[in-house]
Amino acid sequence: MDMDLLTETVARIKGQDGAARSQAKERLDQLIMPHWALGRMMDLALDLAGICGSVHPAVKRKTIVVMAGDHGITEAGVSLFPKEVTVEMVRGFVNGFAGINVLAKQAGATVKIVDMGVAEDLGSMAEGGAIIDRKIAFGTANFADGPAMSRDQAIQALEAGIDVAQELAESTDIFGTGDMGIGNTSPSSAMVAAFCRLPVAEVVGRGTGLDDAQLENKIAILEKALELNHPDPADPIDVLAKVGGFEIAGIAGLILGAAAAAKPIVIDGFISTAGALLAARLSPKSKEYMIAAHRSVEKGQVAALADLGKEPLLDLQFRLGEGTGAAVAMNLVDGAVAILTEMATFSEAAVSEAK
Amino acid sequence: MDMDLLTETVARIKGQDGAARSQAKERLDQLIMPHWALGRMMDLALDLAGICGSVHPAVKRKTIVVMAGDHGITEAGVSLFPKEVTVEMVRGFVNGFAGINVLAKQAGATVKIVDMGVAEDLGSMAEGGAIIDRKIAFGTANFADGPAMSRDQAIQALEAGIDVAQELAESTDIFGTGDMGIGNTSPSSAMVAAFCRLPVAEVVGRGTGLDDAQLENKIAILEKALELNHPDPADPIDVLAKVGGFEIAGIAGLILGAAAAAKPIVIDGFISTAGALLAARLSPKSKEYMIAAHRSVEKGQVAALADLGKEPLLDLQFRLGEGTGAAVAMNLVDGAVAILTEMATFSEAAVSEAK
Fold this sequence. Notes:
Two copies of one chain form a homodimer.
Chain A: H1 4-12, H2 18-29, H3 39-52, E1 62-69, H4 85-95, H5 99-107, E2 109-117, H6 123-127, E3 131-133, H7 151-169, E4 174-180, H8 185-196, H9 212-229, H10 236-243, H11 246-260, E5 265-267, H12 270-282, E6 290-292, E7 294-296, H13 300-308, E8 314-318, H14 324-342, H15 346-349
Parallel strand pairs in A: 1-2, 1-4, 2-3, 4-5, 5-6, 7-8
Helix pairs in contact in A: 1-11, 2-3, 3-14, 5-14, 7-10, 7-11, 8-9, 8-10, 8-12, 8-13, 11-12, 12-13
């Protein structure tokens, strides 16, 4: 496996357009209201202008990409739900009645589901075009016993995410990330612990609802797994291969692909933020394209967001994933663009300014 | 002026429907996701079911009512903007290019503007039907020198708000509150200080952007005004008459009217929360119909929200008013209803539950 697509994609990520950002700032400074009185939605408008390179940033065609994969670490008993739920939920997404379906619909977003590494054959669903098949393997290996995947698979998974971004970029103005994978708070926590050089206990949460004893167990398993695998924080692909997941790689690849195409990408909760951290390690400039949607209940996200320098827009006590937080945040994106493009300035409206 | 409409309206406020709330809870508990994994939007869905008395709460027809009024206290120099801006902004609302217009449009909400007491004659705008004329007077008196309004005017203003709610209730599923009135953080702070028995300095903020010296001045003016007027916290109408405002009374009346019609009402920022506090003092049960939209930059809102027992949905560093926070929160209302009514349960979807 060569690194061509990955290397080339990273090289294409330029960062925000300073001129468009300045132009947007100038307009926002003059809108008919006390200065910057719509606070964070104006900050968001600035970012959208910088990312899209326009004071009329396009955000109409919204695509939330739900990356799905399974995790060998579930064998160690880190999750309340059986692994089979991953494929059951993927079926739920296809049928349209899961959380992400209804919240994406509310926000005017399309949902695309990608099989990055679900442990069952989704052939029948993939054939109908309901899901995009980029399966790397039937789930990762149990990283309590050794690496989650090979280095080649890690690169392959990242490139699959990039590829999906490229494929969807033509019909997408703004991306959102999402995830499905029973057990995936474990690799996410392990990745954040490795990248941020933090003790496991500081970045592990209750996932789908562990009690105190189960949480202690999860921490112990991840501590041992990190000791065993010893991922190198300076080598992002090593971290991914040793303690990551296929859907997390897919999210990171999607972010890099979106950034290379100069499209904004709304980052969902903890799993997506772990993917964003991986993307940022591969391309620090990719951070300029990321919009942090919401603060997850999972505490590991705090460290990851701080590392990325991002403050999430929402705090609604979500802990679902799937892209649900990204979907809700899409409403704020629309609002931010409306502020930038539809409000009048003081002079346009002939309204008296502050003394 | 008799108190018939006010008394009768308060008597009609029944509180949430416990049966519909329980039914909604039962369904939400079984949706295909870890328990309550969409956190605050599920709490919101419960409230909407309880308020509307249905597990299919209607929220489609959204009306944000912007109450406008002027304030004699501006003569004391409490605001950066001249009083004339109130009418200029009302004209902006009518023309459709202010913050509330664009954010309401994004959220699918209609904006109604009510002249509760603007200091100019808005006859020409009122004639076209662009604004609802409920003018009590050409602005309040300067409450640094005596009461802001008479007790009769206070009741009249509350009843005007109730009347507007009744008039709009037929074409409205869910209300939002909004305000416009240069100087209106001053009466709002004074009301919150009086109702919550707090020192003025704890509930006064920078309004449209005061510097430190101007803030100190505002605090001193309000301290003196409260000492002079000595409003009785146990008599809500006394507090309103002595240190309130016409648009704040209109907001309180609107809330009471919405509650009496069993419609949810989304409470905007600081001025609206002061109005909500007044409504709650007149009818504690009216709190059950209120949805707190966002945390304002104005610090007086903290005390008012705590008194109401409400945690706002959003914190976007808004300090504009107009109903802008309520408009953004309407998106979350739609999402909450979608979760309640469109997601499948575990048994409907045949997805395995937690072990």
